[in-house]
Each structure stands twice: as structure tokens, then as C-alpha cells.
Amino acid sequence: MEYSNHQGQPTRESSSKEILKPQTPSSDGFHLPIEITSNILSRLPVPTVLLFRLVCKAWSHLTRTDSFIQQHLENFGKKEKDYGSVYIRNDFFEYTLFYCSNGHFRSVKIDEISPEWFYISNSCHGLVCVYNQDISIVTIRIINPAIDDNFVELPDVGMTKSKVLNVCLCYDDQANNYKAVRFYCSSNGKGMGIEVLTLGDTTWRQVGEIGEIPTGFTDVVQFASGAMHWKAYGEKIFFFKTTEETFGFIESPDVDADDDDMIMRMRKQIDLTVYEGCLCYVTRHWHPWKLKFFVMEDYVHRVWIEYVIDLMKMDETPFSDINGFDHCSEYRSIKVQRGKFLLDNSPRYESSPKKKLYYYNPKTESFENCDDTQEKGYQYKESFVSASKFCNEEI
């Protein structure tokens, strides 16, 4: 069928594609509401979203907004496969940060030649902090290995020139900002000082000092209930609250209430971890088949709930093929990942011990095999929070 225009010239009937109107501000290039598009993209891995940015300008703009970055933080990471790992490798004093997640692998060089070791502290919303312990030249750098090409070096104005014990990144949900917390040896060498830098500021500020250094300060920091935690002397737990910037000690649970054997009490070992968002205190008695762990379900009133893992009661336990008290006593808990305990039963006294890693799920009281690669490095969750937004000086 043909029609005539106002000049009497014949025209063809417009096709369905020709009569579609251009996109409106509330929709994207594929005529989905922006809210739906954002919800879908926010559940995908970072490398996948980076590819989708090439589809159209609307998606490229959408995935760069602050609202999408926050939505991605909330929606991504709910599946076991969403987590990856980061670790540092030293090749003749050339330090490289490696990141692997969702089948993607990247490496970013930290330093060409450095006389000091670089350490990785933790990751926070995709940001990773690395630092050295050189007293004269303190170097603290941050990066998001999923999206950043270069490290950002934090300023040293106001920083105490002393040996670094640990540097941690944390998020203050009340002020909606990120902080770097530096722990260093006090002048007498026995105590510990604390100073904080809000990312984006130029000056460190002193918070205070304590007269002792927590024994587990080289362990991975544990975040729970708005605070960071480490093991301390006398079976206490040291904490630092990220919003109030206050610190102190928490009494550990009475793990020996039913244990009259003083030798067993003295040989006890502990781990700190986080279970379902709560601080978790794990005891490793040299008991053949038992493990205790305590969950602080009420952080304000310091209420610990006790749980016991009895390996002998588990069906098809992977530890059932180990005979003898000595081998059983080597059993230990490493950390909690995605609601399950990662257990290590490697023989300690073999010259080249073979890792025997298993997941234990307290809810189902079941074991799962764990690949060695899942234990390597620090657990990492991707994000679009870029280190470059806080500083202008890139390395």
C-alpha cells in the first residue's frame, strides 16, 4: 500500500522499526526501564559489566554512576563463585599483586626493585591495601585490581615514622567514607600507636596508643559489628571501631568451663573469624575429634553462643581414615568462607605436607572437598569502587 505526502509524491508505509520512538530518559537502548537494566547489570561480575559498557552509551553512563556502584556492592557477591582472591608474589624483590576471580586473572606490578617486603593487609569493597615496613620510607598504596591499572600512594603527612605493624582499610557506613588505619610500634618498642587517614584527605591523625601489641596482629583482620578484631594477650580480643575510632579489649568466652585438664587448657589454640556477620572465636583443643567455636550473636552485651563440632558423629567424615591421636590433633580451622569453615588437616611434621582441605557447613553438619587454590591468598570480592577517586597521585 502506498500513500502520498503533502507534495503528492508516493511514499511507502512505515515499518514497525521506523515508527519506534527514540529512547526516553527512563529507558535504555533496548527499551528496558533503567531500574530493571541496573538491577540486572549489578548482579554480574565486574569484567562482564565492563564488556557491556561497550554495548551503548546509555549502559556505559549507567554503570559509572554512584548509585550503580552502590547497587553493585549490595547485589554482587551472594553466590560462592562471586568471590576470588588476591595475593602478592616476590620475584627477586620485584613485587606483583595478583588478582583472580570468575575466571579472570590480572597482575599489577607494585614496585620494580625494593629492599623491603610488601605486605597485603585486607580488601574492602574491592579496594586492596599494600604496604612496607621501612621506617625511613613508609609506603602505603591502594588499588582496585578489578578496574584500576595503577596503584594510588597515600600521603605521609602527619604519619609517625616508626615500624609498621599493620595497615587496614575499612568502610565507615555512618560517614559514608573509607579509612586507612595504621598500627605502628610506639617509641619504647613495647606498645602500639594508632593513626587514621580518611581516604581523600591529606593528613593522618593520631588516635591513641596502647601499652601492648596484640599477639595475633599479623593475622588477617576480622570485621564484624562495625569493628576490626585481632587476637591479644591473655586470650583477649583487641578491637577498633571504624566509626567512633575507639579501641579496647573484649574478654574471650570461657572455653574451659568444662575442662579440668590443665594441660589441655594450656595447649589450646584459637582462631578468630567471622560467621554470618558475627565475630567467631574458634578453639583448637588438642582433642582427637572435637572443635569448639563461639559466636558473639549479641555484640553490645558481649553474648557468646557455644557450638561443638564432633567429627566422630559426622557421616562419611573425611577424617575417619586418620588413625592415632597425633594426626588428629593436627586438625585446625583456617577461616570461614561463605558461611562454611575451611578446615585444614595437613600433617604438620611431614617434610612436604600435602594439603587436605575441606569445607564444613555447621547448618547441615556436612563436609565438602575444597581445592587448594581456594585457600590461596586473601578472599576478594569485586567492585567498581576505584582508588583513583580518593587521590590524584598514581604510581
TrEMBL record:
Bias (Polar residues): 1-13
InterPro entries: F-box-assoc_dom_typ3 (IPR013187), F-box-assoc_interact_dom (IPR017451), F-box-like_dom_sf (IPR036047), F-box_dom (IPR001810)
PROSITE patterns xrefs: FBOX
Start and end residues of each stretch annotated as Disordered: 1-26
Boundaries of every F-box domain copy: 26-72
PANTHER family registered for this protein in UniProt: BNAA05G37150D PROTEIN-RELATED, F-BOX ASSOCIATED DOMAIN-CONTAINING PROTEIN
This protein's name: F-box domain-containing protein
